[in-house]
UniProtKB/TrEMBL annotation:
UniProt xrefs under InterPro entries: His_Pase_superF_clade-1 (IPR013078), His_PPase_superfam (IPR029033)
Species name: Roseovarius gahaiensis
Pfam families noted in UniProt: His_Phos_1
Chain intervals for the UniProt region annotation (Disordered): 12-32
Protein name: Histidine phosphatase family protein
Top-level division of the source organism's lineage: Bacteria
Gene3D superfamilies for the chain: Phosphoglycerate mutase-like
Amino acid sequence: MTRRLILMRHAKSSWGDPAQPDHARPLNGRGQRSATALGDWLRTQGYLPDRVLSSSSVRTRDTFDRLGLDAPAQFSDALYHASPAIMLKALRTASGQTVLMLGHHPGISAFARSLVATPPTHDRFDDYPTGATLVADFPITDWGDLTPGSGQAVDFIVPRALTG
């Protein structure tokens, strides 16, 4: 039996109000369209999480809402701009067969690179743009047994591929 992780960077956020605190920034119009397209892609591909671990920021919450997924979500301040070590610690306590984790750059891109044995050949994997989504499988039966470098990349997508 395996466990599946869907590792997603939040969609594009708005910088319309320069005085707005970073944690409170919502998605912009492009981010809203991208998050909706990513949710459609996840459903079409059959990549449906049964648990969600997310940063507590407004833009990650907005991204999750726009995905339109029916899964219980846990929003955590600890995942706001979290390091790969913090993300790994949170994931090791997860329940569920398929977990969606929503986070921020640069931690999420470093975490993605650390998890898979062989990275996807996609030219945007290393910079992990907004909305970038990795789907990876792990040969474990419990998230507590997760070790870096043990994942197999199943899929990788960026919103531009879905929205043109």
